[in-house]
């Protein structure tokens, strides 16, 4: 079926940025937040590698992950044009859509604290005109029209195709354009290590300096749920005031990660499609029901609360399904679900469970670090050693019957989990066009 689509010819694009300028002028965007970007393959201009460009904005996908996963329902589709429209008045600035989109289309504006993106020039195309970026292209590399898009239209080196049916036809490079036309016999050979250092360093959307609040929040989620479970089975007490304090701190931590705090209530609107919504709804339900359980001492309420708690742990781990793991692992030691089991086993003093979870987390951690080292990815051996020691010491201290052992042991466990969770963010990234082009260049550089 034909639909409105961009048509991009990689053979014609010269990287002049006229499309970017046209978009900016039409929509009044600031230079720091361009809705359209020209991603250049081989920015280092090495003569033995091909040079081509991708001009990409929002591709208004049929199965748009931004719209599907936005917890605040800030995206809608214009049925007439097929455009995915972002509604600024509904955006909470959580940036989850910037993780979900493989084309780096939603842009977080630091000045407004909300996301914005290409709107397909919906007003223009509704009147039969072409988008401003298309009008601005001087070489005909970027076109627009009614097209029937097939899988073959996505077979272009470096273009991300994850089955979401973007509304763009990529006219692939002709064979003669995949390598330079000029043969430079004097070109200095470049090693893969040097090539890595020469590549442009795109700012990662996932980094510890941005996500430290999420490190603490996710550990607070695991801690509160394991504490409640241990209390439910009669292993420990659970006074209302300490529970309330930790709960408020956890909520405060997650609020620091969003741009529009007064719109936080919109987090709950997309339980049907967004794991982030499910996380917030299930964890909030857990907190409320646990507080009611403590007040009423009703075990039935406690069991319902723990069911919500378990689902919130699953949701937290599923929120990160869009991350591109450097180690390539799906199951890893920093999963919040495993952390909750570890804390429960320690709080409830169940040695056999503690042994099993320490063995599991330790094995997964060592496996992860072995893969990272094999791939030549930077890691921190001293931190890794400390992380392993924290697991071992937690078990050793469990057998010591001393007054100060419990708080010391808890500090050691939490220190190890903070290291593991922090490394999880450090070793993760988001799929972006520039990242895919860099990966492609690395592969070509090692051929």
Automatic annotation (TrEMBL):
Q: Does the keyword 4Fe-4S apply?
A: yes
Q: Which SUPFAM superfamilies match?
A: 4Fe-4S ferredoxins
- The membrane spanning regions, by residue number, are 214-234, 240-259, 300-316, 336-358, 379-396, 402-419
Q: Name one GO cellular component term.
A: membrane
- Range of residues in the leader sequence: none
Q: Which Gene3D superfamilies match?
A: 3.30.70.20
GO molecular function term, any single one? 4 iron, 4 sulfur cluster binding
Annotated ranges, domain 4Fe-4S ferredoxin-type: 4-34, 82-111
Alphabetical GO biological process terms: anaerobic electron transport chain
| Superkingdom to which the source organism belongs | Bacteria
Q: Which UniProt keywords apply?
A: 4Fe-4S, Iron, Iron-sulfur, Membrane, Metal-binding, Transmembrane, Transmembrane helix
Q: What Pfam families does the entry give? A: DmsC, Fer4_11
What PANTHER family does this protein map onto? PROTEIN NRFC, PROTEIN NRFC HOMOLOG
Query: Protein name, please?
Result: 4Fe-4S ferredoxin-type domain-containing protein
Q: Which organism is it from?
A: Labilibaculum euxinus
């Amino acid at each position: 079926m034909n639909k409105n689509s961009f048509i991009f010819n990689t053979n014609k694009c010269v990287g002049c940025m006229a499309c970017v300028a046209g978009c900016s002028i039409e929509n009044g965007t600031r230079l720091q937040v361009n809705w359209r970007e020209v991603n250049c393959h081989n920015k280092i201009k090495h003569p033995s590698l091909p040079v081509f460009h991708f001009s990409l904005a929002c591709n208004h996908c049929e199965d748009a992950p931004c719209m599907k996963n936005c917890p605040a329902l800030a995206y809608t589709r214009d049925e007439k044009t097929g455009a995915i429209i972002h509604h600024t008045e509904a955006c909470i600035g959580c940036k989850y859509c910037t993780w979900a989109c493989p084309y780096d289309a939603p842009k977080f504006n630091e000045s407004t604290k909300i996301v914005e993106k290409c709107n397909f020039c919906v007003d223009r195309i509704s009147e039969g005109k072409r988008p401003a970026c298309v009008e601005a292209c001087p070489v005909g590399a970027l076109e627009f029209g009614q097209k029937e898009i097939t899988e073959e239209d996505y077979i272009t080196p470096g273009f991300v195709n994850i089955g979401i049916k973007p509304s763009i036809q990529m006219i692939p490079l002709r064979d003669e354009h995949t390598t330079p036309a000029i043969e430079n016999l004097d070109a200095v050979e470049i090693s893969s290590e040097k090539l890595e250092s020469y590549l442009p360093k795109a700012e990662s959307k996932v980094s510890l300096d941005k996500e430290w609040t999420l490190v603490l929040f996710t550990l607070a989620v695991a801690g509160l749920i394991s504490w409640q479970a241990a209390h439910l089975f009669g292993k420990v007490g659970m006074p209302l005031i300490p529970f309330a304090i930790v709960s408020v701190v956890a909520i405060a931590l997650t609020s620091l990660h969003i741009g529009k705090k007064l719109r936080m209530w919109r987090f709950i609107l997309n339980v049907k499609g967004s794991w982030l919504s499910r996380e917030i709804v299930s964890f909030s339900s857990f907190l409320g029901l646990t507080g009611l359980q403590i007040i009423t001492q009703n075990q039935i309420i406690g069991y319902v609360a723990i069911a919500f708690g378990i689902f919130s742990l699953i949701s937290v781990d599923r929120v990160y399904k869009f991350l591109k793991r450097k180690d390539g692992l799906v199951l890893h030691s920093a999963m919040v679900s495993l952390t909750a089991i570890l804390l429960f086993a320690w709080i409830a003093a169940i040695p056999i469970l503690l042994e099993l979870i320490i063995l599991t987390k330790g094995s997964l951690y060592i496996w992860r670090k072995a893969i990272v080292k094999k791939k030549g990815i930077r890691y921190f051996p001293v931190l890794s050693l400390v992380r392993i020691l924290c697991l071992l010491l937690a078990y050793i201290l469990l057998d010591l019957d001393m007054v100060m052992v419990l708080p010391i042991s808890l500090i050691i466990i939490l220190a190890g989990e903070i290291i593991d969770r922090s490394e999880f963010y450090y070793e993760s990234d988001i799929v972006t066009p520039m990242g895919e082009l860099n990966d492609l260049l690395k592969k070509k550089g090692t051929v």
